[in-house]
Structures are given as structure tokens and as C-alpha cells.
Amino acid sequence: MKKIVDIRNLKKSFCKGNVCVANNINLSFNEGEIFTILGTSGSGKTTFLRMLAGLEKPDEGEIFIDEQLVFSNNINLEPRDREVAIVFQNYALLPHLDVSSNILFGSNASKKELEDILEKTKLKGHETKYPHELSGGQQQRVALARAIINKPKILLLDEPLSNIDTELRNILRTELKEMIKSFNITALFITHDKEDAFFLSDRIAIMFGGDVLQVGTSKELYHNPSNLYCANFLGKFTKIGDNSYIRPENIKICENGNIKAIVKENIFYGNFNEIIAEVNGQDLLITSFDRSPNIGETINLSFEDKVLNF
Ligand SMILES: Nc1ncnc2c1ncn2[C@@H]1O[C@H](COP(=O)(O)OP(=O)(O)OP(=O)(O)O)[C@@H](O)[C@H]1O
């Protein structure tokens, strides 16, 4: 697979506040991949995206885009020469321009290219509308169309789904993924939201304090986290030994289970129950899709062979 972005030994600190936002980052993304940087607020995600786009100067390191060196000790290509496009959190549409003019803003695309992108982003028939006349989904598609029309090598998405209520967010992220995949474009998505990252990404990098802690598919990260921070960030667990932990869905309630526990709490979440059960004075968190024991009931448990060890 061809590497579209290759980042080597990237370092950046802000003197003001003495904050290290990139601590020797090495990362690469493949052509056609949706790659996500997932991290809490202040972990350095936005600065990373801005360094890739050429909007923030790293202190050290090298950035290659499509095998071209765009940043090093003595090279620093302008944003417009890096062939990247950004979709911002609030879409940054120009309110006084209609859909076509927003898409064409700053672009040399032809009328035919505009027609094509309007078709592919399902905006045909909305060309003369203004941003305030569009739904959230349509606004997102205009922002995507504007980013994609110049055929960037990489599409950078800066938390486009935050500040949107859950129902609309589910619709928008489905559309977003379909659009990105249909254009077969390489995308870097940054978010603090684990669910969005799981939904959208081919691979995810977990970032904290300017460090990339782990890179992998959502399944790899969830089932084989490299440390306690990553394990905790991606899901719940109970400590069951000095260095061992177990996810709640890996504890089964079954008649022939050899661990006896007493149910302390049982919360119904619709398609599953979250149960807290006590064993020898220790609380275990259990997720069950088919059992709903009563509080005070004695249940038998068995641990699946999927223990996390750090
Ligand atoms: N221009 C700047 N000058 C000084 N410090 C900065 C600057 N930009 C960012 N920082 C600091 O760098 C750290 C990382 O910021 P960054 O915006 O990259 O994080 P983030 O993970 O994107 O956070 P959020 O999700 O809140 O946007 C923060 O502590 C922030 O205050």
C-alpha cells in the first residue's frame, strides 16, 4: 500500500506555557485510508493537523506528502503547495455566497467539475441556495465538496461532528463515511469521541500529551491496548489481578460458571444490561445481552480467556 503521509520524528513545543504538543511523532497513513487521531482535549490533535497542513511550523522532523518532502529543517512548503484540504468544525461556509460559489471559492475548477461534484455530493437542485437555507447534512456536503473539488491528496477533518446532537450526528457521520469512501480519498480525522473514531476509521492513533501512545484498528486497540490509559480511554474494565483487567462483556453469567457473585446493581440499557456483582468484597462490572438478574441474587460467572495484562 502506498504511503500518502509519512511523518518522521516530529517535534513541537509552545514556549508560552511550556507545552510539548508533539513529542517525536512517527506516523504514516496509506492511500485511501480514513485515519483518526483520537485524544482528549489538549492532547495535541489540532496542532498536529495544522502542522500537516502547513499552518503551524514544527520545531523539528520531516513531513512527506505523497513522497514529496513538504517540511524539514530547510523546507517548509506553503499550505497551498501541500495539496491538502481542510473541513473545519463549523464547516466555515461563506454566508453571503450560494452553494456553487461556496464550492468554487478559491478554486479553478471547471463548470463540468462543479456539475460532477454537485451530483456526487447529492447537492443537485440546491446550487443557488445559501448556507442558512441548507440542513446540517447539506452544509456538511457543501464543505466536503469545497474541500474535494481541487482533488487534494489528503482531506483533513477537524472535529466536524462535534457540537451536533446525537441523532443528526449519526446521520452525518454515515454520510461522511460514504462520501469519503466514494471519492476514495485519504482522510485524516481528528476527534475526542471514541464512537466517531470507531465508526469512521480504518485505523486510529491514540494521542496524549503530545505522544502517540498506540496505533491500530479499532479492534486491535480495544482488545489489545498497549497500556492502561488506552484501555481506559476505549472502554470499561475491572481489575482482577495485580496487572490484569477484564472487559465487562468478557465475564459471562452461566449456570456452570465457577465463580459465585452477588448482584449489587443491574442497569437496563435497552439492548444490554450493565451489572455490578460482588465477589469476595470486590465489585465486577458485567455486560449481559441475555441475562437480567435481580439485585441480591447469587449468580455464577465465568471469565473468558480475554484478559488484558499490563
Ligand atoms: N498557539 C499556541 N500557543 C500556546 N499554546 C498553544 C497554542 N496552540 C495550542 N496550544 C496548547 O497546546 C496544547 C495542545 O493544543 P491542541 O489544540 O493541539 O490540542 P487538541 O488535542 O486539539 O485539543 P482540543 O480537542 O481541545 O482542540 C494545549 O495545551 C493548548 O493550550
TrEMBL record:
Ribonucleoprotein among keywords: no
Xref: InterPro entries: AAA+_ATPase (IPR003593), ABC_SmlMolc_Importer (IPR050093), ABC_transporter-like_ATP-bd (IPR003439), ABC_transporter-like_CS (IPR017871), ABC_transpr_FbpC (IPR015853), Mo/tungstate-bd_C_term_dom (IPR008995), P-loop_NTPase (IPR027417), Transp-assoc_OB_typ2 (IPR013611)
Annotated organism of origin: Aliarcobacter vitoriensis
Keyword set includes Protein transport: no
Any one GO biological process: quaternary ammonium group transport
GO cellular component, one term: ATP-binding cassette (ABC) transporter complex
Xref: Pfam families: ABC_tran (PF00005), TOBE_2 (PF08402)
GO molecular-function terms, A-Z: ABC-type ferric iron transporter activity; ATP binding; ATP hydrolysis activity
Protein name: ABC transporter ATP-binding protein
Residue intervals of the ABC transporter domain: 5-234
Assigned keywords, A-Z: ATP-binding, Cell membrane, Ion transport, Iron, Iron transport, Membrane, Nucleotide-binding, Transport
